[in-house]
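Hi Q.,

Before the meeting this afternoon, I wanted you to have the adenosine-5'-triphosphate prediction in hand. No need to reply - just skim if you have a minute. The sequence and ligand are here:
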Amino acid sequence: MRIDITFTDRVGIAHEVLAVLATRRLNVVAVEVDPPHIFIDAPQLASAALAGLRAALLEVGGVGDVTAVDMLPGTRRRLHLAAVLAAMPDPVLAVDAGGLVILSNAAADDIVGGTALVGKRLAELIDDEGFPREMIAAGFQVPAREVMLRGQPFQLDVRPIADSPTAEPSQVAGGVLTLHAPSRLGERLQALRNFDEGGFDAIIGDSPAMRALKARAARLAPVDAALLIMGETGTGKELIAHACHRASGRMGKTFLALNCAALPENLAESELFGYAPGSFTGAQRGGKPGLLELADQGTVFLDEVGEMSPYLQAKLLRFLNDGSFRRVGGEQEMRVNVRIISATHRKLDRMVAEGAFREDLFYRLNVLALQVPALRERDDDILLLARHFILRACAQAQRRPCRLTAAAAGALLTNPWRGNVRQLESVIFRAVTMIDGPWLDAPDLEIATSSVAVEPNPDATGDGLGDGIADSWDAAVADFERGLLNRLFPRFPSSRKLAGRLKTSHTMVANKLRKYGIKSTT
Ligand SMILES: Nc1ncnc2c1ncn2[C@@H]1O[C@H](COP(=O)(O)OP(=O)(O)OP(=O)(O)O)[C@@H](O)[C@H]1O
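Predicted structure with the ligand bound:
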């Protein structure tokens, strides 16, 4: 039986209480003192004997009460902890300061075939002799990295166990190690992405063009083949890609996106394919899985795929042909099952004809295709979208919804929307933050300014001089130059490289970069 003795704290009381049990020859297997309670586990104590023991204990000065309890608080805490650990899908280990496992959850035990890890040394588990020593020496204050445990890769997160966050390595009592399997890491990343609404319902649009698009997309989404989404910038290609993922058999698996225009070739390569341990200076020691590995069984969205370098085009083609690739600097052949959805605002067929994009890759990406109409081709959607963004912006600003005046609605309907839905979204958000009253009027919209600021899209508009394009020759040329340099600079991130690519003078390119305020982000 287990009992709870309530007492008023005084020196020697615990000793006197235990003496009472000893005189009755009761074997005590556990004692927990947590003033004003002493909890005792005495298995031989029968219920019938409790009244007598209680009377004897109440004789001890300071003892207030004696009651039976079903469990000692320490046992209860251990059970709670075990339940919490068991509920964690990722393997978790706690080790002491010398790297001996003192606690592990079932997911961690599974790595070694279900046998308890408690009592094992980290050096026996991690397939890298030096790293456990390094981690212990650093007081478990090491950055996250990839490790192999019994041949399986994990992303490792380590937290020191210490009284204070500023404890020296020598004061640390051990560490908690959380291991994320690459596939689950992808799910965690995905959980952070703001696609809560997801699905086709999140795509606002009731125009005939959008209805047709959504109907076609809903038919293509479940077909497990590469999908190419074409359309001008800001038309909602990524939104549609995500809706297609959600409507496919891969729903519930990871969806990860890479913007091929935003990164130089080497970074885009390691983001997509990952890199092997020690593949380049500054790389994480243990290597890093790329999006393809992280999204295994799910979908990878390649935005601006037309901007991919020839080298990456070749590597992607190989992956699309047989599902295999190698990490940067790696020897091992990796195999994953990932659906590729790609998007471009460029005319890829024209790029193929000009030799700027691989024809074989184009056909691989373009097994299924969707063309997203520009916003100016679906007037019916402009006010629908504007009202949707007004409600969202007002909700975010925690204010009452405002309404468009007739003049504002007219201005929205006649604007060319070269930046499409993204431009409309930001025009509305900016306007909502600037007004206090119940009406959003035409001058609040700042459309003239915002439409000039948006990068033009000459590829998508054919001759680049469609409705609403810059109002003079010089402005159109400036728009074209700015767009061209903005697109190429991430891949040729110096004026010399860019001049080489464009086969023109380095000084001229440097002057233009300065003129348009285009700077390296690296
Ligand atoms: N039909 C739509 N309904 C609601 N929101 C939309 C719609 N289309 C686009 N958006 C919103 O507009 C913004 C741009 O959309 P998205 O990023 O999907 O466009 P994109 O075509 O992929 O752009 P880019 O080519 O520049 O990458 C996002 O905030 C998106 O939520």
